[in-house]
Amino acid sequence: MVKFDIITIFPEIFGSYFKESIIKRAIKKSLISVNIHNLRDFSKESHRAVDDKPYGGGRGMVLKIESVYRAVKFLKKQKAKSKNKKTKVILFSPRGKKFNQKTAHQFSKLDQLILICGRYEGVDERVAKYIADSNISIGDFVLMGGELPALMLIETVSRLIPGVIGKSEEMIKERITKEKGFIEYPQYTRPDVFFPEKNVCWRVPKILLSGHHKKIKEWQKKHRKIIEK
After folding, report:
1. Which fold has domain 2-158?
2. In 41-194, which residue ranges form alpha helices assigned H by DSSP?
3. CATH 3.40.1280.10 occupies which residues in the chain?
4. pLDDT single digits (tens) 38-78
């Protein structure tokens, strides 16, 4: 089982997501566990403050190191009683390493992922330097916080855990190549003929309706797209 521990100042963002679909079933079957921790619970300041103005000036506020340190220390201590447990602390940052399928595979082999969700103008750089094991970016753009990246990481990693998705091992073998990356090809379903408007017809490729499995595999191979790592 992989345990996901999310550190955030907006814990209610995650409420409904983990109560739906495949993730909900994975939690119920104890294939994964997801725990949401309010960073403010680890603040010792009045009004549970966790941010302050940046040194050197600049707009906005920066999350302070103290509360993040206490939260991570507390979560690591929970695992300390168990020997040989593999834990990684992840900080989401636009300046981090690009998250990809290879990294997701690596994370799926761990026992615990502690996910730090930044907000405002960012997180004190000492968190990235001394506390986080990996700084992760999900793309060349800037979001308002790390909550959406955390959801994306959890879903990507969870689907690689045996039992979360039916026939997951077969799916992984067919669609992932360690040498090249993530493989995807066009998918179609019923109806095989669709008329969006008069004199317009969109059809499913005939080969996919043929029942000829060898030719279908050849078609999929020809039309697949390899998304590089």
Report:
1. Alpha/beta knot (3.40.1280)
2. 65-80, 101-107, 125-126, 147-158, 168-175
3. 2-158
4. 999 999 988 999 999 999 888 889 999 999 999 999 999 87
